Amino acid sequence: MKKLKLYCVIIGNALNRRQSLFSFIIATKERYTDGVKWKFLEHKGPVFAPPYEPLPSNVKFYYDGKHMKLSPQAEEVATFFAKMLDHEYTTKDIFRKNFFKDWKKEMTSEERSKITDLKKCNFTEMSDYFKAQAEARKSKTKEDKLKIKEENERMLQEYGFCVMDNHKERIANFRIEPPGLFRGRGDHPKMGMLKRRIRPEDIIINCSKDSKHPVPPPGRKWKEVRHDNKVTWLVSWTENIQGSIKYIMLNPSSRIKGEKDWQKYETARRLKKCVDRIRNQYREDWKSKEMRIRQRAVALYFIDKLALRAGNEKEEGETADTVGCCSLRVEHIKLYPENDGQEFVVEFDFLGKDSIRYYNKVPVEKRVFKNLQLFMENKEPDDDLFDRLNTSILNKHLQELMDGLTAKVFRTYNASITLQQQLKELTNVEENIPAKILSYNRANRAVAILCNHQRAPPKTFEKSMQNLQTKIDAKRDQLADAKRELKSAKADAKVRRDEKSKKYRIEEQLMKLEVQATDREENKQIALGTSKLNYLDPRISVAWCKKMGIPIEKIYNKTQREKFAWAIDMAEEDYEF
DNA sequence: GCGCTGACTTAGCACAACTTGA
DNA sequence: TCAAGTTGTGCTAAGTCAGCGC
């Protein structure tokens, strides 16, 4: 009864934070213990990519120096390549090979017999045409830009929301991925392949029986309409490169995602309570008689100490050659009994998720070192380091140690606890706001380094650094002037006061610039966003802001505040992870 | 156990949108 | 007011992990 009453309140005012927080707790504790994710789900279905518009006749394609009119299908695929002409991708052999193979499939038999060598294809007119179009888009008038904006807004309002259990929720990706050329990361064997256009007939709709079902475009059909309330997705289709399923799901601000996120951090907090026991256990296991247990224990030590990912097996030749902890190979580590004055050093060098390089030299305990020597005995470089271990074995073991424990919980736990410790260590209530924020970013950075969240240095980095330095120099000159003026303004008390406050103001500005420069330099190759969004319990940041008198807007932008609304609502100043 | 698949989270990059200072 | 620089958002690839059938 009480529950029912609450729901009514929620329906009446779905956007009221306090109330949605209640529904949140109810949902987690009472409503969905049986894998049911919702009772009611209604939406408008996906937005398809716009149909292909053939090129104007003056934009020509040349083969072997001669103009050649392509069939619409072949032309469309050619434009995908033309649009990427300036990208390094198009110079890579695999990319070109894959593209050409798939392009030929789209050609008429006549085209296929003529076009036999990609090197003889000239796409430059197409490429120039698209560049001109992009330029034209940029230089549109204010009114035109506003019109586009309004149209986008209209689409968002129509397709960007759904109703799930009495809440109107934002959908994350309501637009179907347009066709194009597949761009894998790193050395992907499938780069350049044609990602085909998705049609209504490829689409599975998921919604509740008693909802208004989404309508396919006129004269078309959905592949299937199902009513599976044990899953959270609204739309799915099978992608043609890997044959995997893609989904349309809800925005991170939605109840269903927020709840899950909250749960994730609660699991990490439970790990905090038993991590000492687990650490003692794996240290004991280093001595085990059984090889499989020693391997498990050393791997777990790496996952815990270095925040490595679990490392599932991957199908060879289907994806880029990347590894995580359990899939490390002998060639990925080097052992140094002594290195730079430290004993038992392990050097890691491998490509992880997204082909981001993990390079680290770490001193380890002697037992770990000896075990690693043992694991590597009589093995080839491309043999598995942990040949008696995989993620499934590891996670089964972890499950026995703590309910809900898996390898990735260690990343969440270590990231969040590091942030909390670093914030305690680095920040001082006495400092001013820019200094506090620099400290926050430094704490955030410690986590990003731990998790190896890298980014390519921004293209404009050097220049923007230089600009900042110029500003700092100018500000220093200004400060020197102000100091001189203050000195010479001895007699008049009022003038003195004014000069003093001016000097103070300039000092503040200078400090702010210097802090900004430090922050930016330290951030050159480190991405803070990923850890902020996925690994750091937002309640730690909310509590810190409250304690330090920092407005939450300084730490989280609008999107982030929406995602972490539950935490902003929940966490008090004394929150402890 | 073992391989496979589906569902869901995590990830970096490209580009659009906004901000700032000349 | 505009270009340059900076930040935010969208996109979609690439992971993790549970569950299933054998």
TrEMBL record:
<keyword id="KW-0238">DNA-binding</keyword>
<dbReference type="Pfam" id="PF14370">
    <property type="entry name" value="Topo_C_assoc"/>
</dbReference>
<keyword id="KW-0175">Coiled coil</keyword>
<feature type="domain" description="DNA topoisomerase I eukaryotic-type">
    <location>
        <begin position="181"/>
        <end position="549"/>
    </location>
</feature>
<comment type="function">
    <text>Releases the supercoiling and torsional tension of DNA introduced during the DNA replication and transcription by transiently cleaving and rejoining one strand of the DNA duplex. Introduces a single-strand break via transesterification at the specific target site 5'-[CT]CCTTp site in duplex DNA. The scissile phosphodiester is attacked by the catalytic tyrosine of the enzyme, resulting in the formation of a DNA-(3'-phosphotyrosyl)-enzyme intermediate and the expulsion of a 5'-OH DNA strand. The free DNA strand then undergoes passage around the unbroken strand thus removing DNA supercoils.</text>
</comment>
<keyword id="KW-0090">Biological rhythms</keyword>
<protein>
    <recommendedName>
        <fullName>DNA topoisomerase I</fullName>
        <ecNumber>5.6.2.1</ecNumber>
    </recommendedName>
</protein>
<dbReference type="InterPro" id="IPR051062">
    <property type="entry name" value="Topoisomerase_IB"/>
</dbReference>
<dbReference type="InterPro" id="IPR001631">
    <property type="entry name" value="TopoI"/>
</dbReference>
<dbReference type="InterPro" id="IPR048045">
    <property type="entry name" value="Topoisomer_I_DNA-bd"/>
</dbReference>
<dbReference type="GO" id="GO:0048511">
    <property type="term" value="P:rhythmic process"/>
</dbReference>
<keyword id="KW-0413">Isomerase</keyword>
<dbReference type="GO" id="GO:0005730">
    <property type="term" value="C:nucleolus"/>
</dbReference>
<dbReference type="GO" id="GO:0003917">
    <property type="term" value="F:DNA topoisomerase type I (single strand cut, ATP-independent) activity"/>
</dbReference>
<dbReference type="GO" id="GO:0005694">
    <property type="term" value="C:chromosome"/>
</dbReference>
<dbReference type="InterPro" id="IPR013030">
    <property type="entry name" value="DNA_topo_DNA_db_N_dom2"/>
</dbReference>
<dbReference type="InterPro" id="IPR025834">
    <property type="entry name" value="TopoI_C_dom"/>
</dbReference>
<keyword id="KW-0799">Topoisomerase</keyword>
<dbReference type="InterPro" id="IPR013499">
    <property type="entry name" value="TopoI_euk"/>
</dbReference>
<dbReference type="InterPro" id="IPR011010">
    <property type="entry name" value="DNA_brk_join_enz"/>
</dbReference>
<dbReference type="Pfam" id="PF02919">
    <property type="entry name" value="Topoisom_I_N"/>
</dbReference>
<dbReference type="InterPro" id="IPR014711">
    <property type="entry name" value="TopoI_cat_a-hlx-sub_euk"/>
</dbReference>
<feature type="active site" description="O-(3'-phospho-DNA)-tyrosine intermediate">
    <location>
        <position position="535"/>
    </location>
</feature>
<dbReference type="GO" id="GO:0006265">
    <property type="term" value="P:DNA topological change"/>
</dbReference>
<dbReference type="Pfam" id="PF01028">
    <property type="entry name" value="Topoisom_I"/>
</dbReference>
<feature type="coiled-coil region">
    <location>
        <begin position="131"/>
        <end position="158"/>
    </location>
</feature>
<feature type="coiled-coil region">
    <location>
        <begin position="465"/>
        <end position="499"/>
    </location>
</feature>
<dbReference type="InterPro" id="IPR013500">
    <property type="entry name" value="TopoI_cat_euk"/>
</dbReference>
<comment type="similarity">
    <text>Belongs to the type IB topoisomerase family.</text>
</comment>
<dbReference type="InterPro" id="IPR036202">
    <property type="entry name" value="TopoI_DNA-bd_euk_N_sf"/>
</dbReference>
<dbReference type="InterPro" id="IPR013034">
    <property type="entry name" value="DNA_topo_DNA_db_N_dom1"/>
</dbReference>
<keyword id="KW-0539">Nucleus</keyword>
<dbReference type="InterPro" id="IPR008336">
    <property type="entry name" value="TopoI_DNA-bd_euk"/>
</dbReference>
<dbReference type="GO" id="GO:0007059">
    <property type="term" value="P:chromosome segregation"/>
</dbReference>
<dbReference type="GO" id="GO:0006260">
    <property type="term" value="P:DNA replication"/>
</dbReference>
<dbReference type="InterPro" id="IPR018521">
    <property type="entry name" value="TopoIB_AS"/>
</dbReference>
<dbReference type="InterPro" id="IPR014727">
    <property type="entry name" value="TopoI_cat_a/b-sub_euk"/>
</dbReference>
<dbReference type="GO" id="GO:0003677">
    <property type="term" value="F:DNA binding"/>
</dbReference>
